Amino acid sequence: MIELRDIYKVVGAMTPLYVALVLGYSSVRWWRMFKPDQCDAINRFNCYFIIPFFTFQFTSGVDPYAMNFRFLAGDVAAKAIAAAALALWAKFSKKSSFAWVITSFNLSSFNNTLVVGVPLLKAMYGAAGEDLVVQSSVIQSLVWFPILLFMLEFWHASSCSDDDVVDEEKPQPISTDGDGSNNTIVVVVDGGAALAPLNLRSTMKQVGAKLGKNPNCYACALGVIWALLAKRWDFEMPSIMEGSILIMAKAGSGVAMFSMGLFMALQEKVIACGVQLTIYSMVLRFVGGPLCTAVGSIALGLRSNTLRIAIVQAALPQAIASFVFAKEYGLHANVLSTAVIFGTIASLPLLIMYYAILDMLR
């Protein structure tokens, strides 16, 4: 049974994150300390220096030879369940569209694993919680984000014809017909005219180019490579190298949340997409994602704290990178912005609720 001191540990782990968030928000909205271009500079510093070191620090400490593959398979099953449900919705609902399938998958499947997940799961479940959420972060960075980028690139290409972009607010039905001989897909819009042949090789190049500009991908990949070598031959990181990484990585959570506060302050509204879409995004993030994870994890035999960790990590706030990609492609960025901001604010009581309910179901 969860005691008051257990709740205090969770609140104690999360409160410093919210302090950094409030400071970032206040420095722009009330104290007028930073202008938009200065906020952009701080965000770039966070993106290109702090977070990559932060990611490498955790990733390099993972033991790739002792990963919980059933836990990771549960994550794959959860994504498959979400994708299948959205595919059925797209097939049978007149209100569906490929654009909203991508956004809905984004909302239900991508969470803030390191910045929020590590301190939260460590407070709830100790070292086991931290280890599993870092494993989930590795798979999200190396597998799921490239898949999301591929979907976005495919949507972007399918929405273009003669340099005209189909209005995303008026979704068009899409059907595909693959040609295996030349790796080309023909996209048909409005049940008749072929818009443009989509070359898979070109799409993959675009995805690769996007990932190549993301320093987090390099940090995660290098962290996995280091972990493979270090655990295989049993050597430790030199103290000079470790100290150089830690001096940047220790600022990871604080600067990331401060940057999020800056971002919140620069928005005209915390809820930028209207009440209905906000409710829709919150239901997908805090109900849909955990539900798919629970079904997939139970089906694969996860039990005890491993199951609880899987469900709680699925209920973490929306991943910031998912909003960045949505904004870059111009696909429902206002919905993802609201999911990141409002979801982060509302996540603490919801996660404590999950923590308490899952403990009572022992």
Short structural summary:
With 362 residues, the protein is mainly α. It is built from 13 helices and 5 strands.
Verbal overview:
With 362 residues, this protein is mostly helical. 41% of the residues are buried. The strands form 2 sheets. The chain has a 3-stranded antiparallel sheet with strand order 3-4-5. A two-stranded antiparallel ribbon has the order 1-2. The protein has 13 helices and 5 strands. It has a single domain (4-150, 205-360), classed as Na+/H+ antiporter like fold (Up-down Bundle). The chain is globular, with a radius of gyration of 21 Å.
Secondary structure layout:
Blueprint: H1 4-29, H2 36-59, H3 69-92, H4 98-109, H5 113-158, E1 160-161, E2 164-165, E3 174-179, E4 184-189, E5 194-199, H6 200-212, H7 215-233, H8 239-249, H9 252-266, H10 275-299, H11 304-314, H12 320-329, H13 333-360
Antiparallel strand pairs: 1-2, 3-4, 4-5
Helix pairs in contact: 1-5, 1-9, 2-7, 2-8, 2-9, 3-4, 3-10, 4-5, 4-10, 5-6, 5-11, 5-12, 10-11, 10-13, 12-13
